[in-house]
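ESCALATION

Customer reports they have been waiting on this structure for their group meeting. Please prioritize. Original submission:
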Amino acid sequence: MNAGTAPAGLTDLSKYIYGATRLGHDGLAQSARVDMALRAMAAGIWFHVSHEYGNALEVLRTAFDADRARVPKMIFKIGFRTVAEVRETVLRDLDALAIEAMDIGQLCLVDGLAEDFSNGGASVDAILQLREEGLVRRFVLEVFPWSSAAALAAIDNGVADRTVDGFIFYLNPLQRFALNPLWHRLRQRGDAIVAMRTVAGNHVHALRDVPGAAWKEYLQQRAVDVAPVFDRAGVPDWSEFCVRFAHSFPEVRATVGSTARSDNFERFVEVANAPIEPLARETLAALEQLAEQWSDAFDRHAAPGSM
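Update from on-call: job pushed to the front of the queue and completed.
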């Protein structure tokens, strides 16, 4: 898949990637968010960033200017409806952070662009031109339940092998955004996967018990099913459980989790920097069975943006 000099199969990613979502939330003072960014930079791990995350890029620029020697490697969300918009996103984000190239561009393709790309249309060469120009070194393809068929078509049409080094989607004990047919194909092929949303937004007990903790009703319902599996597993905490869940699949190169709390961040880094032990076979089997059921009964019927 990889046409450049970076390691193929995303093997150079840190096991935990800091998601910059929370850096754009104005509920916390900007100075505190800059401090959080600097702490994450000091850890030497990858970042996941987007211009869609409030003023996260402004916060990151402040942190980067304070310590240019520690500017991290990053995955950027780029898209969306036209190749011109993809290029515009790339140039705008590079300028915002005063860097020369994106390490990885996360292709967030929708509507006609997603269809053209998956079918090997003109957009493929237009997107690859960004790599030829040195603006984006590698690509991963974003997957949702409603875009799983397009991702599968990109594999079948040989487009994925020409363009991307892996696939990126929500993958945690409560969410697996690759529908069953795509998930089985990715695992059969051994494609590299970046798992998003490490802890599904909150502790499973909070998602189950606290009104409003789950931003969608389906997550509260799934937490009811997952909580007993977690409770029986004997794993010290939910963060460790979720990191170990993601890395129980050999195709997973990294898990992306966002937090503005230093204690949560330190726990993510602590777990990911230690040897990561896969979850017990029976625990993983129970979670996989739930994911298979949810995929067929709910996820494949979901409207775009509904999950």
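Sent to customer with the following note: Confidence is low (pLDDT under 50) at residues 1-6.
Escalation resolved.
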